[in-house]
Amino acid sequence: MLTRLAAVLVRQRMAEGAPPGVDGRAWLEAVAEDTYEMVAGLELVTPVLLTSVPELSEIVWPGTEVIAIGEDEPLRDILKRLDGEQAAVISGDAPDLPPLLVGKLFRELGRARITVCPAERGGAVALACGLPAPGWADPDLDAADPVAALRAQAPGPRMVAATPGWHRLRVPDDAARLDPGLEGWDNTRALLAAR
After folding, report:
1. Has residue 105 got a pLDDT over 80?
2. SS3 of 85, please?
3. Share of residues in the chain with pLDDT > 90 (%)
4. Among the four residues 52, 76, 83, 146, which has the most C-beta atoms within 10 Å?
5. 0.85 exceeded by pTM
6. Which residues contact 107 (CB under 8 A, 6 or more apart)?
7. How far apart are alpha carbons 159 and 181 in whole angstroms?
């Protein structure tokens, strides 16, 4: 059986997505914890936390690997620090991401070297690849069009696949994109209700 990692990537700048009346650090912790909880509930994957935020390890379950990263450390370099056969990196500002979309990322690796879940309004919510990551790839979840960028970097066709997209909470208005009917994102929901 493949060793698969699902790593939640949390950078300090994600606090900038806090809606009015919500503390930035509290927002970052809530969305990151909800994203992590979704990942930790997946079967057949090992959760990992990748973070530039000090003292964030309290949001993860005991035994979860926490890897400290630089705030602007490129994803290409971060991927080199992961041990396993396949890895998905999920942006920590996607608290209501359906688990099914992470599963689709891994499934698409059967036909592509890298798979991307695009974000609405540009960027990517997540990507997956085999480890070690392809040397030609310089992925960036915050690139304007990461699928097009990776396809331009690839040495041949059909090496980069895209799954259905989702949304990230990058600016204060993005909180309106959360679907109250979806299960999960309990910490984010409670924080918004307490405003």
Report:
1. yes
2. coil
3. 95
4. 146
5. yes
6. none
7. 36
